[in-house]
Amino acid sequence: MKRNTGLKSESAGSEIIRIEGLSKYYGDGEALVKSVDQVNLSIRKGEITAIVGKSGSGKTTLLHMMGGLEPPTKGRVLLDGSPLYEMNDSKRTRFRRERIGFIFQKFQLIPDMTIRQNLQFPLDVAGKRKDKAFEEELISMLDLEDRLGFYPHQLSGGGQQRAAIARALLLKPDLILADEPTGNIDEAAGQELLKFILRSNEKYGQTFVIVTHDMTAAGMAHRIVRLKDGKVQPDSGEENRGGTYED
Amino acid sequence: MKIRKMLGYSLQGVVKSGAYRVFLLGVTLCIALPVLFITVTDSMFYTAQEKKKDLYGEFTDIYYGNETTESLAGNAALEGMTDGELERLLNEKECQKIRRLGNLYSADLTCWKEQSPISDMDGLEKSLEKIFLRREKKEADYYGAGGASGLLSVGYADETARELGRLRLKEGTWPDEGAVVITESLQKEWEEEPRPGDHVEWRGRRYLVSGILYDYGMLWVENVNQTDADRQRPDLFFSKRDFQRLLQEAGDIQISHRTLMELRDVFSSDIYMEDYALVQNMAIKSGQFSVPPYLLYLVYICAALLLIQLLLLGLPRMEQRMRLYRLLGVPGVSIPFLLYLDLFWVYILSLPIGILAGIGGAYLICDLGSRMISMPFLFRVSVEGTAGAATVIGVLVLLSGILPSVRLFRTEILERQAVSFRRRRTQKRLIAGALLGLLLICIFFMHGSALCYLKADENRNLSVPLYGKISTDYDYEFLANTISSDTSYVDENGNSLSVSTSGPDDIYTVYNEPYLGMSEEDVEALRKDEGIQKVLAYKECSQLYMRADRGDPYQKAMEDDMMSNQIISFNEEIERIYGLDGSYQEIRLQGYSEEELLNLVPYVEEGEIDLEKIRTGEEIILMIPDIQTEMWEYDDGTGQKCSAMSLSYLEKGAYDGSEGQYSNQYYHVGDTIDVFRLYSENPELRGKITAKIAEDEVKRQDFTFRIGAVIRCRAGWFEDTMCPEPFFNLLGLNDTFEAVGLPSTYTRVRVYGVNGEDGGTLKQTMYKLSGKLSEMHLDDRRGFMEEYRQYRLLLSVLSALLTILSAIMGTGMITGRMLMRVREERKCTGLYQIAGCTRKRLFWSLIRPFITLVPAMWALSMLLVRISSEYFFMLDGYWGIRQWTKVLGGAAVLSFIAVVIVARAFFKDSISSLIRQED
C-alpha cells in the first residue's frame, strides 16, 4: 500500500477528543468480557484516524463510546474538553447531534423515508435551517441528485452509504465517526467513498475517525490506532508512515 | 423539532412502516368490534322497542271516556275533549305536560241485530252482516246463546290517535268519505278477502275498501278499571262523516272515546287518583329488558388486550425505528412523545375505517338476521354509542401506549450485546404468552358468562326443568281459585251467598274441586282456535286425605317438629259423619301430560314410570321431597331473640342424613296408599258448611293408589307455587283421574298463542272466556311473552355474535403470534436443521405452547365462569358441560385452522433461505 503523505497533518490543530482510561466490560465473573480495556487516546482536529484490529478487538465499541452512544464501564471521553458521559442524556444528545456525525456499516437509513427526507430529518431534529448551497454541493459530490426521491431499499449498497455520508455531513459536524464505511459496499464504491472522505477532510477540515478492516481505507489515514483484546497496541497511534496492517 | 414536521414524519412512519400497518389493522378491528356490537344491539333493541310499541301503543297515557250519540250531535262532534273537559280532568300545570293527544271513537254495533234481525246468510257475500252473523254463531258455540257483545266494532281515529295507537296500514290509504279501512283479521274472515278497491256493504250502504289495517296496534292498557268496551278494538275505521252518519243511524248507543296522550313529563300521581279513567301505559313507560352492560365491558377488555398484544408484536420494529431516531439526535425524553404521535395517527386513520367497518358489519348481520329468522330488524346507528366506543378505544390506545413508551424511553441507542439475549427473549415470550392467555381467558369467559346470563335469565323469567320444573313460556293461564273458597257460601236452603265470614255452626269448608276449573269441552274448543298453538291443561285434586302414620319417622318428625301444616285433625262432627279418627295427612294428586311425566324420569329414585299403568290408575308416582331445615335466630326489634326455621328441598342424591335433613324412606314401590276426599255432586256447593249440609250433600269417596315410582326431590312443580307444597304428592296423568273415578275439571290451563301473530283476536277470545269462567283467574302474559321472546332472540343473536367475534379475534391472535415466532426464529430453525433436527419436530416445538395454552385457558375459564355463575347469576351447581364441550370443539377446529396457516409459512422456505436470514 502506498504511503500516506500526511496531507493535512501540518495543519492539524488542537485536540478535539481525549479518551482517558476508557473501558467497557460485558458480563461478570468468569464470563467477563473486556471489550475495551484502559484505552487512552487523543485525536487532533482535522486529523483522519483509522482504528484497526481483529474482529472482536473492541474497535466498534470504542468508536461508539467516543460518539456518546455507549456509556463506558470506566474512563472518560472529553469532546473539546467537555466530558461526554458526565452530561445528562438530553445534553449529550444535543452535543452529539451538533458536533458528531456518524457513518455506519449498515447505513442506518430510516426505511420509510426517502433519501431527501433522510437527509432532512437530522436538520429538523436539531432545528437547523439547511445550507442549500452546501447541500447541493454535497449531493453533487456524492452523486445523489437523481436518487433523492428514492427509498433506501431502492438504492444499491454504495448509494445507501453515500446517502448515509451526506446525512452525516449535512450538519457540518466537527467530528465524523465512521464504522466500517466500506464494509458493505463493493470495491469501486469503496474507493470513491474514501476519495470523498479525503476531499471533505481537505475542504472542510473535518476530523474523521474510521474503524476499518480495509487496509486501503486505513492507508489513507493520518494515524492508525491498533487495537488488540480491547487494548491499544504500544506501537500504534503514530502518524501513518505507510506500513501495512496485516490482520 | 417543530410539531408540524414531527406530525409529518410520524404520519409517514405509520403509513409506510410494516409494524404500524399491523397495529393500524388491529386498532381498526378494536374500533369496529364495539361499534358493530353497539350498532347490532341498538338496532335490535330499537326493533324490540318498536315491536313493544306495536304491542302496547306509543302513547304514555290514555283516558277512557264515554259519550252517547246524542252528545255528539253538535258541530264539535268527534273533536276530542273540549278545553273545559280537559281542565276538569287536569289542572293547567298538568295540561302543559301533554305533548300531543289523539282521539279515537268506537262503537259496538252488536245492538244492530235487535234493530234489524237477519238470520239468513244468503245474498250477504260482500256484506258485513255476514261476518256479524258468523261471529255470533261462534260466540254461541263457545258460550251458549244470548248476551253476546262486541261482535262488530266500528271506529274513527284522528291522525294523532293513529300514530299513538300504532294503527298502521298494511296496504292502501286511510278512508275518505264513502270508504272504509278494515283490519287484517276481519279481511281473513271473508272467503273473498276484500282488497283495497273492492266494496263492502253495511246495512245496504256500499263502502269502498281503501286500506287494510295491520292487526297490531293498541288502544287500551290493561288495568283494573277498564271495561270490556275499553278493550274492544274497532274492526272497521270510517271517515269522520261516515262514522257520524253511522252513529246517527244506529240510534242512541254508547260510544267509547279514548284520548291517547303523549306526555313531555309524567303527571303527578294525584291526577290518576282523582279520575280512574286516566291510566298510564306502564308497559311503555318502564323498560323491562336491557342488554347486560358487562357484555360491552368484556368487548372493551378484549379490545384492550388485543391492543396490548399488537403493540407487543410491533414493539421490536418500533424499537428499531426509535433507535434510529436516537442515533440521529432525538433525545430520549422525546421518544414517548414520538410514540404517542404515531399512536395518534394510528387512531385517526383507524377511526373512520373502523367505524365504517363496524357499521357495515352490523348492517350485514341485521340483514342476514332478518333473512334467517324472518323477523325484520330495523337497522339503526347509535351516534352516542358509536362516539362512546370511539372514545373508549381512543383512551385504550392512549393507555396501551404507556408500557411501550416507558420501554422505548429506556431503550438504549445501540442494541445490547448478546450476553443476556436469551434470557430477555424468554422473558418477552413469557409476557407475550401470559397476555395471550389472558386474552383467551377473556374470550372464553365472555362466551361462558353470556351462556350463564342466558341461563340465569331463563331461570328468572321462564321456568326451565330445574328440579323437574314445568316450563312456563305460555301466553295465558287460567287458574282455579282453590284457596278463596270462603267467598261463596251456601246456606241451609241451598242458596249461594257471597260472604267472607264463617257462621258459628260451620264445621267444614267445601272446595268442590270437580267444578272449579275448565271443562274438557272448553279445553277442546280452545285447542281448535286458529290463534292458539297449543293448550296444556292440568287436572288437580289438592283435597285428598291420608291417615297420618306415626310409624313413619318422617311423618312423625313433621308432626312433632311442627314443620308441616299438612297434618290435620277434623272437626268432631265431620269425624262422626264420615267415620274418621285421628290425624290425617293432606295429599294432592296432579295430572300431567305424558311428555311431562317422562321428563321426570331423571328424578325417579325408585321404580320406573310406566305410562300405561299410570293411565289406567293401576300405579301412581309418589313424590316426597327430601328436606333440609335450618334454625336461626333474629332480633324482633325489642331486643328479644326469636327463632325461625327455613326449609329447602334437596336435590336428588343430596340427602346424607346430616342434622336438619329429612327423607322419607317409609314408602316404597309396591306399597299402597289409601286416600279419601269429601265432595258434593252439587256444583254450586262451595265454602263453609254446617253439619246438616255435610250430611245431606257432601260425600266421602275412597281411593287406593299403588306406588309405581318414588321421587325424593321436588318435581313437576309450577313456577307460581313457590311456597312449600304438601309433602305428599301423587303424580299421574290427566287420564288417571277418570280411570280411578275421580271426576275433575282442569284447574290449570295454559294457552300458547301462535308465534309471530298479533294475537289481538286471541286476547279478545281469552278475555271473553275469562268472563264466563268466573271461578278461574286469567293471567295475561301475552305482552310479556312477546317482549320476552324478542329479548331472548336478541340475546341469543348477541351471544352468537360475541362468540363469532371472539373466535375470529382469538384465532387471529394465535395465528399472529405463531407466525411471529416463525419469523423470529427463521435463522434458528435453519441452524437446528443443519444440526440434524427434523422440520416436523421443530414445528411441533413451535406450536406446542399454543395448542396446550388453548385447552388450559379453556379449563381455567370454565372454572372461573363456574365460580362467578354462583355469585353473579345465582346458578347453583351449573357447569354447562355440554356448551363448554362445544366451545372446546370449536376452539380445537379454529386452532387447527391456525396451525394449518402457520404450517404453510413454516414449511415454505429452504434451509439455505432460512440461514441467510439477517439477524
TrEMBL record, chain A:
InterPro entries: AAA+_ATPase, ABC_transporter-like_ATP-bd, ABC_transpr_LolD-like, MacB-like_ATP-bd, P-loop_NTPase. Residues 17-247 form the ABC transporter domain. Pfam families: ABC_tran (PF00005). The keyword ATP-binding applies. It comes from the Bacteria. SMART domains: AAA. Keywords: ATP-binding, Nucleotide-binding, Transport. PANTHER family: IMPORT ATP-BINDING PROTEIN. This is ABC transporter ATP-binding protein.
UniProtKB/TrEMBL annotation, chain B:
GO terms for molecular function: transmembrane transporter activity. It comes from the Bacteria. Coiled coil: none annotated. The chain crosses the membrane at residues 20-40, 294-316, 337-365, 385-409, 430-451, 793-816, 846-867, 887-907. Keywords: Membrane, Transmembrane, Transmembrane helix. GO terms for cellular component: plasma membrane. PANTHER family: ABC TRANSPORTER PERMEASE YTRF, MEMBRANE COMPONENT OF TRANSPORTER-RELATED. This is ABC transporter permease. It comes from Lientehia hominis.
